[in-house]
Write the structure tokens for this entry.
Amino acid sequence: MKAVVITTPGDPQVLQVQEVEKPEIGDNEVLIRVEAAALNRADTLQRKGFHPPPKGSSPYPGLECSGIIEAVGKDVLRWKVGDQVCALLSGGGYAEKVAVPAGQVLPIPSGVSLKDAASFPEVACTVWSTVFMMSRLSSGETFLVHGGSSGIGTFAIQIAKYQGARVFVTAGSEEKLAVCKDLGADVCINYKIEDFVARVKEETGGKGVDVILDNIGAAYFQRNIDSLNVDGRLFIIGFQGGNIAEVNLTGLLARRLTVQLFGSILLFVGSLDKVAFVSYFLDGFQIMHFVSAGLRNRSVENKAVIVSEVEKNVWPAIAAGKVKAVVYKCFPLSEAAEAHQLMESSKHVGKILLIP
């Protein structure tokens, strides 16, 4: 079969389509003939050598796909050959075929094309696990998502609105903000010309928002803290603005804030005495949590739980037309390099797909 191979870590041009061996499936896996695969920022990191696949996973990039089941392992009960599905992957989506554990497979949502369904698994599992399962966003609360026009952002806006939250977004152009508003965002902030902290405080009567989903990391860390309400929750899923930050921890302690991370962040808080003091309070009163929540390296069992929750809670919203696929552009598999260039330019809105 054909697959996109990272010939050596580097720029997009290192992505080359090559003939490779067809994947073998295990007893509890299915083989999917790929209709479409969606790009994610993690794919660009893998291409650069910074985000290797878990041990035993496909070496090819691609964390979500849609397609038709071509074979099933002997222990698979739910799925059969010919089923149209989409799936959360640990890798291998940039290929004509991919093997995936049965628990990470989802039916195509009602009203969504087989191709467009590739845009949902990774974003849905990321947003549902971080914003709802871990940060516990609930109806009536306020929610800020940075990068509102990204694949994660466009999905997060819609599902948060469906769940009854008031949604704030940041983006870098009026055109992108217009898309966010059309998707349901209540407060749209152009971060290039406006201070999002001040706007958040203005719109919330000085309180701040309850939950923030952030893809910037260090560059926004203190400003995110300043934007949170009492008992607020910050979830960091990316480090486009760096992974080393200095923060004033006083606000964390006083307002009982929770910070959760996809990866890791290094905090410089002053002297060792201060670090020890802060650690004592963090451990004793659970004011602040640093946890790893990246989907890719979770266990198969844990991913299956998240996928099940997504099917139960998100798929009905899609079927009802309350959450829609936002696909910006499709590229043939042979143009994976051009697709990566577009993603890294940040000129797109929503998802970018590859078609084998």
